[in-house]
Amino acid sequence: MDPSFWLARWQAGEIGFHQAEINPHLQLYWPALHAAPGSCVFVPLCGKSRDMLWLAGQGHAVMGVEISPIAVADFFEENALTFTTQADARFVRRRAGEIVLLEGDFFDLSRDLSRDLNRADLDGIAAVYDRASLIALPPSLRGRYAEHMAALLSPGTPVLLITLDYPPQEMDGPPFAVSAAEVETLFASTFHIETLGGQDILAENPRFQARGLTRLQEQVYRLVRC
After folding, report:
1. Quick one: which of 67, 144, 174, 179 has the fewest CB in 10 Å?
2. CATH number for the domain including 87?
3. pLDDT tens digits for range 39-83
């Protein structure tokens, strides 16, 4: 699955993965990360998620990365946010107050010093929120994603990871099923893993029932970079 897949989905308006409401697991479990007010939160593959507004409302600076220019433009327009723009060879940076969205590819982020900013891309990141990143990726890319995330983060950085798990033979993703066993396989060598909670949300999601699912488990993890 290459970037053109997601660019086409946004172009066609096929964004059933977008949630209009703030994710309840974010609100319930965010305190478990102990991210200090004023610290910066990274949101990979952020789309136009309103969860970023909630995080900013908790006193955090927010940095998101998103490959679709439509998603980035929609975020600022739909939330009536005035922004400034700065472009370099890898990203277009749009800033509105304490929210910065990088339009570009997550895999282009680096720990190396940026010539434009004279710092690494994720310098100062105190926590990560991943609701829709890992589950957006097919199995062939999830290992690369986990390795790149580990390479970007400093030791001690916590991640709130929310996954979906369902019988994979019942539906082709995205969103893809990611089991607890796969979370362990992907992250155990570089992160401490703690299961915070979860619930079956199939009854609340008729579109997934229509696709043939008999179970849809939303699972919440706290990862901490070793």
Report:
1. 144
2. 3.40.50.150
3. 999 999 999 999 999 999 999 999 999 999 999 999 999 999 999
